[in-house]
Specification:
alpha+beta, 134 residues, 5-stranded mixed β-sheet, globular, Cytidine Deaminase, domain 2, 28% helix, 5 strands, binds tetrahydrodeoxyuridine
Length: 134
């Protein structure tokens, strides 16, 4: 992926930290998902008083895209941190990895970022090897 596009995805993911609804954990997560057509779908985590119904930022972005007919993806940028302050990389949880595996190819790129110039890129295959599918 071009550097300019990586930076754009990271910027959008960082913007999403403002929309994160995380009154229980105070851990804010933002994501920006790139479709194969070049469109970007964003997401944030949305928590719930009953905890279980909470949704991660990555799944918010995927579900927004799939619900609008998009099913082919190139990359996702993810950022997160306590009170919205990014201090570490925020790798996707196991459930989100499995949801990504439903729609994304093995070389789908996962951009784990601390800022637009501090990031690392991992493939879905690296984060979820030997994934389950039917
Ligand atoms: N969270 C995400 O949004 N994405 C992840 O991959 C890991 C966790 C959210 C869920 C919850 O709202 C908060 O971070 C703390 O777990």
């Amino acid at each position: 992926m071009e550097k300019i596009l990586i930076e754009k995805l990271i910027k959008k993911a960082i913007e999403m930290l403002n929309f994160s609804y995380a009154p229980y954990s105070n851990f804010h997560v933002g994501a920006a998902l790139l479709t194969s057509e070049g469109k970007i779908y964003t997401g944030c985590n949305i928590e719930n008083a009953a905890y279980g119904p909470s949704n991660c930022a990555e799944r918010t972005a995927i579900f927004k895209a799939v619900s609008e007919g998009k099913k082919e993806f190139e990359a996702i940028a993810i950022v997160g941190g306590k009170n919205g302050k990014i201090e570490n990389f925020c790798p996707p949880c196991g459930v989100c990895r499995q949801v990504l595996a439903e729609f994304c190819k093995k070389d789908f790129e996962i951009v784990l970022a601390k800022s637009t110039n501090e990031y690392k890129i991992m493939t879905l295959e690296q984060l979820l090897p030997e994934s389950f599918s039917l």
